């Protein structure tokens, strides 16, 4: 994750970077991902898979988070949430 004067940029291997305008961010905090997601990710992580995705409704997105490790939670003013490895 990179930060510029106006944006937060999330880089995901083999995908174009995701740019979030700072004006749209409600808050940024350090946290751990939700347990239900961590269980799924743990199964994939043991096989060497990096997880990046979003829920069907697009409200929650995950980028390279790892079970048991802190991540950055970015909450947007429109209610969308991003969990990004720190």
Could you please describe the fold and organization of this structure?
The chain is globular. Strand 7 (about 70-75) and strand 8 (about 80-85) form a beta hairpin. Strands 4-7-8-6-5 form a five-stranded mixed sheet, with no helix packed on it. Strands 1-2-3 form a three-stranded antiparallel sheet, with no helix packed on it. Helices cover about 15% and strands about 40% of the residues. With about 90 residues, the chain is mainly β.
Write the layout of secondary structure elements.
Elements: E1 2-3, E2 7-10, E3 18-21, E4 25-31, H1 35-45, E5 52-54, E6 60-63, E7 71-76, E8 81-85
Parallel strand pairs: 6-8
Antiparallel strand pairs: 1-2, 2-3, 4-7, 5-6, 7-8
In short:
This protein has 1 helix and 8 strands.
**Sheet with the most strands, sense and barrel status:** 5 strands, mixed
Per DSSP, what share of the residues sits in E-state strands of 2 or more residues? Answer: 35-45%
- For the residues shown, what is the average pLDDT? 86
Tell me the series of helices and strands, N- to C-terminal: EEEEHEEEE
| Uncertain residue segments | none
CA-CA gap between termini: 7 Å
- From the alpha carbons, calculate the radius of gyration and give it in angstroms: 13 Å
The structure class reads: mainly beta
Helix content: 10-25%
Compute the number of helices. Answer: 1
Q: Say how many strands there are.
A: 8
Shape, per Cα inertia axes: globular
Oligomer: single chain
Question: What topology, given as strand order, has the largest sheet?
Answer: 4-7-8-6-5
